[in-house]
Amino acid sequence: MCEQESSVRCDYLPGCGYKIWQDAKEFTYTTDSVFLGNFPHVVRKAKVLELGCGTGAISMLLEHRGAEQVTAIDCNPRITELMRHSIADNNLQEKFTIVDGDIRNYKQLLRSESMDLVAANPPYRTGGNVRQIGTAACHELTSTLEDFFRAAAFAVRYRGRFALVQLPERFAESMQLALKYGLQPKRLQWVHSRLDKPAWIFLMEMQKGGSYGLDVLPPLIMYNADGSYTEAAARFYTTK
Asked: What's residue 127's pLDDT?
């Protein structure tokens, strides 16, 4: 870690080595973000948008993988302040645009069909016990899953892609929303903590105006029986 002060800390982002500033009292990136940042195809000179960017882990991973321009939006000014700090420390200012705003106001914040790829790690929970840390990031307090689909469908170009990570319990809902907004599911991967455990998340990539045809990838297993990373998971944590 970099120098730490109070609840704010500077970590290093797995797979690329970028510095990332975070506040433990707000929310810090998780394995879900690392997997999503490495999941979608990034076309040459891609213009990328992250909805609900948090401290920007997914955005920075996508830039490291070749995105030419990245726009990141979040409604929490404390989080976007930290992301701006990260972008400056990594000398990425020319590639990033960080927007303070609510994705529900997408028509005022974004240009229609301007992005090659949209990525999102939306809040997972609609109910249940509410987390005291990262509340808005984990629970649908300000925006719903449909809000993310609606904004993505608006911003992504025809034949562009929308990638997200979500819980298995929301898979059917995600499929319904994808079809509602003209986003054809094209790639799907289930992620398991261990080989003998149920999937805890899924990764899905959709194409605006795409034809039928879904590739279901081999499941991604995170840990071996001895608790070490599997070969598939470890490659996301190796700096390239």
From this structure: 54
* Residues in CB range of 61: below 8 A, 6 or more apart: 13, 15, 16, 33, 34, 37, 38
Query: Strand locations in 47-95, DSSP E?
Result: 47-51, 69-74
* Mean pLDDT confidence for 185-197: 97
Rounded to whole angstroms, how far apart are CA atoms 53 and 75? Answer: 9
**Measured distance CA(101)–CA(116) in Å, rounded:** 21
Query: Taking Cα atoms as reference points, which of 222, 230, 185, 235 lies closest to residue 206?
Result: 185
CATH of domain 8-222: 3.40.50.150
Q: Mean pLDDT over residues 89-116, rounded? A: 97
| CA distances (Å), origin 36, targets 2, 27, 88, 169, 188 | 25, 17, 23, 18, 12
The pLDDT score that the predictor gives to residue 132 is 47
Does residue 131 register a pLDDT over 80? no
| pTM of the full structure | 0.90
Residue 18 DSSP class: -
> Per-domain residue ranges for the chain?
8-222
CA torsion 145-40-219-165 (nearest 10°) is -20
